Amino acid sequence: xxxxxxxxxxxxxxxxxxxxxxxxxGLDQFRVTGTMAVRAMLRELQNAREHVVLYSADxxxxxxxxRIEGLEAQDFxxxxxxxEADIEALMEAGPLTLVxxxxxxxxxxxxxxxxxxxxxxxxxLIAAIPDHGWRIQxxxxxxxxxxxxxxxxxxxxxxxxxxxxxxxxxxxxxxxxFYWQASQGALQVGQTLPHSRIERxxxxxLPCDLKIIRIGAPDxxxxxxxxxxxxxxxxxxxxxxxxxxxxxxxxVRAVRND
Length: 258
Known about the structure:
Elements: E1 31-33, H1 35-48, E2 52-56, E3 63-66, E4 68-71, E5 75-79, H2 84-92, E6 96-102, E7 105-111, E8 115-118, E9 123-128, E10 132-137, E11 153-157, E12 163-171, E13 175-181, E14 192-200, E15 203-215, E16 223-230, H3 235-257
InterPro entries: PilZ_domain, T3SS_YcgR_PilZN
Organism: Lautropia dentalis
Protein name: Flagellar brake protein
């Protein structure tokens, strides 16, 4: 197994998060070879119960958010999710790219083809386990900062059922960070913020429960950065969060490439 150097980045200065990396991003330095090694990476994703994304190799706008449901001798199984049209398009698209993340590790595989298994009770997508993949480890790589035009804020419920909000600083599949004016009320590390939500301009709110894991020192304006992890996100909301992160990353990448 070729172990990547954790200190190296890409020509953009950051490893992309949910979007696939390319050889131009320095991908091959993270290469892992051997079916057993790839199986171990797939098992890592399965055990973490994290979402993975399947992309068309030719068009990353065509993608499917799903989960790894099981491993067999030569292949692995994915949950049926998304529209029938998207699934059919991916099955016809030829080579696909699978991207998944567990903590600070990003896993990327090339899937030669996708097929459907239906036993009359349960439908699953099937793909062969490839003989190589990529394992990218960067602690700061997988958070995105929404553009100002999104108007993204975090709304939290305070005592006496009052609500207060702060600007969203960054977001990942596992949590978020937002600005907080100390004058709105005292927050504490370890505190749970139930019935919170992420609000954006012209988009449905994303309801979530948050647990505070870090609070920064106030700046000159009395603002603090509050870091939180998501607590027991429902499946449908977790998928929407991941899709939003992917959308932000795609827009940021488009600006970089202009």
